[in-house]
Amino acid sequence: MSAYERAERAVSPIAEDVLSGLTRTPKALPPKLFYDAEGSQLFELITELPEYYLTRTEASILEQFAGEMVEAAGDEITLVELGAGTATKTRTVIRELLKRQRRVNFYPIDVSRSALEDAARSLNGDFPGLALHPVVADYCAGLEEIAKSASRKLVLYLGSSIGNFEPMQAGAVLHSVRNSMRPGDALLLGTDLVKSEKVLIPAYDDAQGVTARFNKNILARINRELGGDFDLEAFKHVAVWNPKSSRIEIYLESLREQVVIIEALGLRVHFGGGERMHTENSYKFTPHTVRSILNMGGFEMERSWTDRREWFALHLARAR
Ligand code: AVJ
After folding, report:
1. At residue 203, what are phi and psi to the nearest 5 degrees?
2. What is the pTM of this model?
3. 151 backbone dihedrals φ, ψ, rounded to 5°
4. pLDDT 10s digits, 130-161
């Protein structure tokens, strides 16, 4: 490795998170590390799995009720989407908005430039009247950007992405979203709901092993970006339902005692046989817990829509 490559690796944006995550007890890596180009592609595959009901169910609720949702949001709306990705589910909302207003300004916010470019390419052709203003940024920077606009907003936060945060943290995230809005603006929040473990576990441990590949991509990414020597075969994907905390917990379990070297961090990490490293929580909500995080965030819950099986819900909340 040249000195230049070494310097490159040393400034990898994941270096700090990996160093602190692998040196703490118990070991844990944050779920945002899943989403490099490879991981984002794997997540797209997850959304199409038969066991992963979330994306499909949310899309069907939107298809059925987007008219009512947009109606409730108000007139002359500017649309904002957090973590828009390719904005596939958003098309339903845009279609309904364009029935009610001649022009729609849409600010999709995402860290992935390529996803936003895909979104722009497909949306521009299909919706004359839509003015696209893509923002390549994380939520925080992106929200600051849109806070400047004075028009009435509808902010979309879909896919139960809020479920990755601890409830207190989720309240704080919503509060920062709220700070980029004005009183009376609307938030449309998608949340996965508590249900039988028989449905939840397969959604996070599918038969084809795509979720396992998605989880292990964290290790592959450390190998790629930080010169790690993780043996992906020496770890097992584990998903457990924690009913007390109402969350799915995802781990990587070391199948044997082993030492892993991470060159760019000058680190040797010991794993015991059976040791579990936490990589993600995915909280599942009830109407009560959704209301609680919305209130912490400075929103008033106004209306909810769900599917026939009540597996997923979308909530329209009003900024106080
Ligand atoms: C993108 C956070 C909503 O929790 O269901 C999917 C991520 N992890 N399978 C979720 C995920 C494993 C997903 N979110």
Report:
1. -65, -25
2. 0.95
3. -75, 160
4. 999 999 988 888 888 888 887 899 999 999 99
> What is the C-alpha separation between 255 and 289, in angstroms, rounded?
36
CB-based burial label for 87 (10 Å; 0-12, 13-18, 19+): buried
Atom 4 (ligand 1) nearest CA: 282
Query: How many angstroms is it from 34 CA to the middle of ligand 1?
Result: 10
> What percent of the chain stands above pLDDT 70?
97
DSSP labels for 200-216? HHHHHS-TT-HHHHHHH
Say how many Å lie between the first and final Cα of the chain, rounded: 55
Distance 184 CA to ligand 1 centre (A): 30
Q: Which residue has the tokens 């998170």?
A: 17
Instruction: Provide mean pLDDT across the span 216-244.
Output: 98
Rg (CA), the chain: 21
CB of 40 within 6 A of ligand 1: the answer is no
Write the DSSP string, 274-300. Answer: T-EEEEEEEE-B-HHHHHHHHHHTTEE
State mean pLDDT over 291-295: 98
pLDDT of residue 7: 58
Q: From the CB of 83, is ligand 1 less than 6 Å away?
A: no
Query: Is 125:115 a contact under the CB 8 Å cutoff?
Result: no
Which residues touch 139 (CB under 8 Å, ≥6 apart)? 82, 83, 109, 173, 176, 177
